[in-house]
Structure formats: structure tokens, C-alpha cells
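Complex record, two chains
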Amino acid sequence: MTDRPTTDRNAVLAANRAFYQAFTGRDFPAMDRLWASRLPVSCIHPGWTILFGREAVVSSWQDVLRSPRGPAVQARNERVSLYGDTAVVLCEEIVGDAVLVATNLFAREDGEWRLAHHQAGPVAEPASQILTPPDRLPPGGLLH
Amino acid sequence: MTDRPTTDRNAVLAANRAFYQAFTGRDFPAMDRLWASRLPVSCIHPGWTILFGREAVVSSWQDVLRSPRGPAVQARNERVSLYGDTAVVLCEEIVGDAVLVATNLFAREDGEWRLAHHQAGPVAEPASQILTPPDRLPPGGLLH
């Protein structure tokens, strides 16, 4: 007997792991394969503006993976939300001493879960110090 | 004759506008109604860690909308990507002098497009100066 949500959850988590493996391993062909071919594709790298379309997104990853300063990136606390044929993985990205948070949207294309959108952004404070967001803007200076 | 993608696109854009109207109008009941009831719900406010679950997310919005320092937020350059019963709106958020970029995930629930996930993060440089992201991390100091 198959349990569809569990199967999907595991497949999405595996795709998310493959994304971070390609990232840290600077494996551009693997990264290229992970992104959807026909569905809409977009990406927001931390601090950067929105990239639309497979060509712009994949080309940005080529630059990121080529960068000599590119750090290793480790994902932790992955959590999957399933919405039928799409799924979101939210996770923390450990990049050197910094923690980022990421939204990874996967969509089913030809029966496979492929990346459709990625946004990562900085966390301003250690999670343990965060109780409630008192304001829309992050703590002083982050935007300037 | 109905054009399903056009209808969906307009409905999603209307839901996205309603989100920013509730935000700027500090209309908590409207904000509350926009978020999905049964589907998974999550949110990443700029600089903050990941919030999971309707209660945590909606309660964070109550705090944001209550804040006396809460600025007006205007969305521009909205772009919709449709994935069947889910849709992503990517847009820029103008918050005072700052520009943020946002991922707004909508999912169809009881025939209505409702918010399922939101992530907003700062843009470090004016878009016109951005050619390619040379590194994973935003320009100096943003994370510290």
C-alpha cells in the first residue's frame, strides 16, 4: 500500500537535499537539472532582486557556483508543506557563521518534483531571541 | 467563454492587492480572512525566522498591524506564476525609502485563492546596479 503524502514528502525532501548538494558541491549540471523545464521559474537570491524565467535563474546559479568566494551551504530544519502538485520546503541555510531562511517551491513536472522558485534571506537575530515581530522592518540598519 | 488562466491570474492579483490593502490599512480582520484555513500556512517576515501554522502566522500579523511604527507598504511590479491550484505572486514592496522583495504563495481553498506562505526580504542594492549575483551572500555587512 502506498501512502501518497508520505511518498511525496520524501520525494520533495530528497529534491531539496539534491538542491543543497548541487549548491555546496558546485555541481552546475545537477543544479540545472533540478529546475523545472516548462513551468514558471523564478529566484530571489539574498539581497538581490527578483529573477524571472529559466534562463535568468539558471544563469544566476552558474555565476553563484562559479564564484571563488562561494561558501558551503548546509540546510537544516527542513519542513515540507504539500499543496497537491506543488510543495514548499522551508529551511534554514547555514552559510559560514550566518543563518539564512529559505523558501523552496517545488512543482511536479513529468512526475518529478522540480524547483520552481527559491527565495533566501538573512535572519537578523538568533531564533531564540525572537518572540514576536514588533515591526515590519528588521532591526536597525539591516536595510542601509 | 471563460479563459481559466486569465481568470485565475486576475483573481490571484486581486488577492495579492487585498493582502497589501489589509497590511497598509492595518485591517486585521481582513488579513485574518486572507490566510488559508485548512492548508499549511507559514510566513517569513524580513529578518525574522520561519513561522509555521495559522495561529503563529496570523498572530504575528496582529503584532505587525498593531505596531505604532508600522509603515505603509506598497506593492509594485507584481508578477503571477500559476501552478494549477497554487500560484506565486512575486513583487517589490515599497516600505518608506526601502525596497523589499516578496514571495506570496496562494492556494485554492473552497474555490478561493488564499494566502499560504509569505516571505519578504531586503534588496541590498538598487535593481539597476545588479547584473549578476557574484556570491551567495549579499554585499558586505548586511548579515552582521
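Note: Confidence is low (pLDDT under 50) at residues 127-134, 138-144 of chain A.
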